[in-house]
Design goal:
With 318 residues, this protein is α+β, with helices and mostly antiparallel strands. It is built from seven helices and 15 strands. It has three domains: 132 residues; 32 residues, no CATH class; 132 residues, Nucleoside Triphosphate Pyrophosphohydrolase, CATH 3.90.79. The relative contact order is 0.14.
Length: 318
């Protein structure tokens, strides 16, 4: 199998250590003073600027911000140290998102230890932090999101208790166990001779074009999902589908399977409910797009699996 290339959120720097999730939460290896603590507010990690590099802000165990959290999850061991992700809750009644965020930002700006720290929207700044820290932030974001959105049992409706430091929830009423949700998604580079297809979703940032993608449905393989999605969105039949790479995508909890496939046709029947536009580009045209030489189009962003597929095709690597 082809080696999985490095992508954002993909780094294996964290030792997951499932065995440590099950120990008592007062155990020294978890709650020692050297543990690393990262903070999230509304899915945004607290970061700082260090020598023009954006880095996660790590807090001491007794920092005042940790008194404002409503959820703590254990990510694993990072460089031999326990690392935790904490979620800040809205601690003032009827406060809006902006008011609450402003409240914390103001306190952070007045904290000498948190000089230049702020909450970063990961989706808008995918490559601002390092590969290692993107993996920490992505895992923390996905795990916190799952916990905050799964507080009640889907079987009996009663409140769930947290187990294994945020990696499981349990219903004490009906004994149902709940585990973090992962949504499989295919994203595919479609090739016809010397051309490849890119499309634009109505939800994309302005001018952005990317590879076609869609969720895998129950009972499907990733190849079946790719055929169905391409047929539904642009009316093409594809064949010779091959796996290229994968990428965790914490928006909120997807696992992206990067594929390539071929078609003998170029006539498109675009489903306007799914795509605003779709166009065929030659290698040379795509190369110019990736270089930023197109005024009316932007390519998939660096660090994403879509960008990897496009760049690999331009370089004749796939």
């Amino acid at each position: 199998m082809r080696e999985i290339p490095r992508l954002i959120f993909n780094n294996e720097i964290v030792a997951r250590r499932a065995d440590l999730r099950k120990v008592n939460q007062s155990t020294p290896v978890l709650k020692n003073k050297g543990a690393l603590n990262i903070i999230f507010f509304d899915g945004m990690p607290l970061v700082n600027k260090t020598n023009s590099q954006t880095r996660l802000t790590y807090l001491f165990h007794d920092h005042w911000l940790l008194t404002h959290v409503d959820l703590t999850v254990f990510i694993g061991l990072y460089k031999g140290k326990s690392i935790f992700a904490h979620n800040i809750f809205k601690d003032r009644k009827d406060s809006s998102h902006e008011d609450t965020l402003g409240y914390f930002n103001k306190r952070i700006q007045n904290d000498l230890m948190l000089n230049m720290s702020y909450f970063l929207n990961l989706r808008n700044a995918l490559t601002d932090i390092s590969d290692e820290e993107s993996a920490l932030a992505g895992t923390g974001k996905a795990l916190i999101h799952w916990n905050l959105n799964n507080k009640y049992c889907g079987k009996c409706g009663l409140a769930l208790s947290i187990k294994n430091y945020g990696w499981e929830r349990h219903c004490n009423s009906c004994n149902q166990h709940h585990f973090p949700r992962i949504d499989p998604v295919i994203i595919i580079l479609i090739i016809s001779g010397n051309k490849t297809l890119i499309g634009r979703s109505p939800h994309f940032p302005e001018k952005l074009y990317s590879c076609l993608a869609g969720f895998v449905e129950p009972g499907e393989t990733i190849e079946m999902a790719a055929k169905r999605e391409v047929q539904e969105e642009v009316g093409l039949k594809i064949y010779d589908i091959e796996y290229v790479a994968n990428q965790p995508w914490p928006f909120p909890s997807s696992l992206m399977f990067g594929l390539k496939g071929n078609t003998n046709h170029t006539l498109l029947d675009i489903d306007k409910n799914e795509l605003e536009d779709a166009v065929w580009l030659t290698r040379e045209e795509l190369k110019n797009l990736l270089k930023g030489n197109c005024n009316n189009m932007l390519p998939a962003r660096p660090g994403t699996i879509a960008r990897l597929l496009l760049e690999s095709w331009v370089r004749n690597e796939i």
